[in-house]
Amino acid sequence: MASSTHDQHQLLSNLHGGATSAPPPTPSTNTNNLLSTSNAADALSRLLHRLPPNLSLPTRRSSLSATSPPSLSFPSLTPNQLLSSISKLGYVQLTGHSVSSELANSAESESLELFNLSRHQKESLFPQNWPFGYDGGDDEDETLAESFRFDPSCSTESNSSELTLSSLRVFARALEKVGLSVIDWLMKGLGIENPVGNDPDRFCSIMWVSECLTGNKPGSTGGFYPFIVGLQYQIRCEKQSLLSDSGGWVSVLPHVDSILVTIGDIAQVWSNGKLKKVRGRPIATLGDENDSRCITMSLLITLPTESIVAPLLPKVEDNKEEKEININDGEVQDSMFNSIDFEDYAWRVYHERLLFKDPLDRYRVTQN
Q1: What residues are paired with 279 via a beta bridge?
Q2: Side by side, which strands form the sheet with 278-284?
Q3: Nearest Cα residue to 259 out of 190, 172, 188, 195
Q4: In 65-126, which ranges are continuous DSSP H helix?
Q5: What is the average pLDDT score of the chain?
Q6: Looking only at Cα atoms, what is the longest distance across the chain?
Q7: Of the spans 85-89, 145-149, 204-208, which averages the highest pLDDT?
Q8: Which residue(s) pair with 241 in the sheet?
Q9: Can you list the positions of beta strands (E) in the chain?
Q10: What CA–CA distance (Å, rounded) separates 367 from 274?
Q11: Residue 261 and residue 69: Cα distance in Å, rounded?
Q12: β-pair type (71-73, 91-95)
């Protein structure tokens, strides 16, 4: 004990500049650097280790270097190939699909015209019918952009032939077809039954059209909404920012004419946590020097509001008792998420505009 006490006193003496240690640097002796690079790095490391493990630190998206997402050819895609490529990051780009660039450009032209309408026209033609309708942003925060949320029919309250949105409608249906195929392949890769199939009563699609603002900030393109998979056609060479489980804000540059596919929170719950997800829709990255105007057109395949979301685990019969099994190693697996009332969850996620807190945290099962 005496030796231990002596060592502690000796350590404290050294830390506080005892007789055996060199005096700490002072502004008069070291005006350029008060702390060495090594000490600063150690202090930062200790701070980061003390932070909660699930905390996502905000990152300036403008400083991120863009990477190309994993690329898969749609015609030759298999369930195992898709699952292997998308499970770690939560996103992938599809090439060789049937959605034409002409259709995408035509849909974009129609969508741009929507933002030229007066505020009164927007609100009367696209009234709020949760989760669809026009969102004028936030009057108190000019950085929140306007957006429109359509069902795949892209209908309006007017029969005017001047605003038919025919190209946007066809474009939404084409993306929906690709998205349903992606869901089917994912479910087969996971070894679980597809809960939506092609039955329109079991899923819901939202075509989300948002204006991109110069110097836009995370979340400035409107609220988030839960989804199974999201699809966004890459019309031009333009970086996209994603809020990913695997690394916070990441910047990607998909190939022109590819479709950026993102995994949503519903798919993560269905997979019992095996899939990484992307929170919200990809955001086009515009620098302050860019005064051009652009929009994003994202199709979200989601669920009807009356749905209940829970992990989908394969089941086998053993002595007439059903057991949930791990699809990878055959061991008994517990659910990682509690059941979610989708309407309540969707409303909270959209209106609270959660950015750096995972909205699924409150539904995770605490493992003893």
Answers
A1: 243
A2: 248-252, 240-244, 278-284
A3: 172
A4: 79-86, 101-114, 119-125
A5: 78
A6: 93
A7: 204-208
A8: 251, 283
A9: 71-73, 91-95, 133-135, 147-150, 204-212, 229-233, 240-244, 248-252, 259-263, 278-284, 294-302, 308-309, 315-318, 321-324, 340-341
A10: 16
A11: 10
A12: parallel
Terminus-to-terminus CA distance in the chain, angstroms?
Answer: 38
Domains, in order of start, for the chain: 69-308 (2.60.120.330)
Q: Average pLDDT for residues 309-337, to the nearest whole number?
A: 61
Spatial distance between the Cα atoms of 299 and 179, rounded to a whole number of angstroms: 9
Nearest C-alpha neighbor of 185 from the set 86, 108, 282: 86
Contact 360, 367 (CB under 8 A): no
What is the full DSSP assignment across 286-312? --TT----EEEEEEEEE--TT-EE---
Instruction: Measure the CA angle with vertex 93, ends 217 and 75; round to 5°.
Output: 155
Q: Which residue has the higher pLDDT, 259 or 321?
A: 259
Is 299 exposed, middle or buried (CB count within 10 Å of its CB: 0-12, 13-18, 19+)?
A: buried
Question: In terms of pLDDT, which residue wins out, 182 or 243?
Answer: 182
H helix or E strand, kind and range, residue 171: helix 166-190
Position with higher pLDDT, 291 vs 172 = 172
Positive or negative, the Cα torsion across 211, 60, 229, 83? positive
Residue 233 CA from chain centroid, whole number? 16
267 in Cβ contact with 82 (< 8 Å): no
* 72: three-class secondary structure by DSSP: strand
User: Is 219's pLDDT higher than 50?
Assistant: no
- CA triple 283-285-287, angle to 5 deg: 150
pLDDT tens-digit readout, 118-148: 999 999 999 989 899 998 876 555 556 789 9
Q: Is 333 exposed, middle or buried (0-12, 13-18, 19+ CB in 10 A)?
A: middle
CB 247 within 8 A of CB 85: no
Which residue from 65, 88, 104 is spatially nearest to 241, judged by alpha carbons? 65
pLDDT at 349 over 60: yes
Residue 368: partners with Cβ closer than 8 Å, 6 or more residues away: none
